[in-house]
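User: My collaborator and I are trying to settle a disagreement about how two of our proteins should look. Neither of us wants to argue from intuition anymore, so we agreed to look at predicted structures for both before our next call. Could you fold the first one, then the second, and keep them clearly separated?

Assistant: That sounds like a sensible way to settle it. I'll keep them separate. The first protein:
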Amino acid sequence: MEMFIFILAAIASVACCLMVITQKNPVRAVLFLIMAFVAQAILFVQLSAVFVAALQIIVYAGAIMVLFLFIIMLLNLRKDEFGGDRHPFQKFAAVALAALLAFELVIVALRDGSRSPSVSLPENFGSVESIGEILFTKYLLPFEATSILLMAAILGAVVLAKKRLDD
């Protein structure tokens, strides 16, 4: 049963991620990204990292994605504002990189798993204490830089929307 749930969540995650990058409507892309976060939270639960799964849902799917959705709707971008295809080579490069990624995935899937070392997780993996200790000691600067970057993005979106409403 665990393998079935893993396969289902992995397929859902990959499918939703593919839908994120193929959608032309940004609102639909954000909704598919929320679904991808939920599928990844299921994978965290299977790793016995329930706290990380809860954070995945509450912080990413709940707060940040709703904020992105709000900003996208606030900007109300029209199709003519996106501009035309400026880089015709970009589509060819995207197809080539996708084919390379698919080739690598096939190689990894066919590889003999007995050669890879088994990974043993620490006893307190995914607990509130271990995450808090790492987040506020080793990764404090990137954590704070990310929060400042998100705040700057929000302020920029509000300023752009305000300019647009004033015109």
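The second protein, kept apart from the first:
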Amino acid sequence: MIKKILFNYYGLKELLDFLINTSKEVYNTIKPIIGSSLASEVIGKGAGGDWTMRIDRLAEDVIINSIKKQNLSCIVVSEESGIINIGSKRDFYIIIDSIDGTTNAVRGIPFFCTSIAISKSNLIKDVCTGVVLNLWDGTIFYAEKGNGAYMNDKKIKTSNRVLLEDAIIGIDFSKAEESIVNRLKPLFKKIKHIRHFGANALEICYVASGLIDAFIDIRRVLRVTDIAASYIILKEAGGLMLTPEKKEINSILEPTQRVSFIAASNPVIYDEILKNIKK
């Protein structure tokens, strides 16, 4: 387990461990209602614009309460509740997607996660710590800037595969406009192994661990809260997350901020993907 002292003036010597323990608490709390009618009860609309289900709120409450119990002073950016100021100093950010893949969770499909990240500013480029936990089986991915990425305490790295014909590529084109589908058509013809499991943060962690070779979402509908934690995990595993214009993602950490990106295991396969996406 990585043990680094961060923000020690808050009295919390192992902030990464705190995030890991909090995500495990979410896992234990929501597990009894996975796939139940209680989980899918709609209780409002989140700050990100989607309907909030009871399982989302239950998971978020666990995280917020855990932050408050540790007397942290921070700005919370949550997909459900929006911007929450906790404490008086508030000089760092905690970014929450309490459940990514809610549809899978309420149906009992075993691929959904909780995602928690820490940033030194309100920009994704300053995310320094991230945890993504698979809420079905407890598999946990985590990273801290400069210390590598891990899956269940084992260091991970991205794949070195460079041929699209042999690669496994995740693509989210759910509700994509026709123009987006047309841009992706050459890829559909080129790639033999296309996947989409329904929880984008977890799929990016699969790229980080070498299980798949890239993940693409160019719809510009995915929220920055969905990818904040997996962003640092992927980068620490040796991968890259860039826009289709080869630019670094530098989004503001707000619940309504949308992103468009290609998460790739290495620069060669990123370039191969770009060659097969229409301008």
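Some points you might bring to the call about the second protein. The chain has seven helices and 15 strands. The first strand starts at residue 42 and ends at 45.
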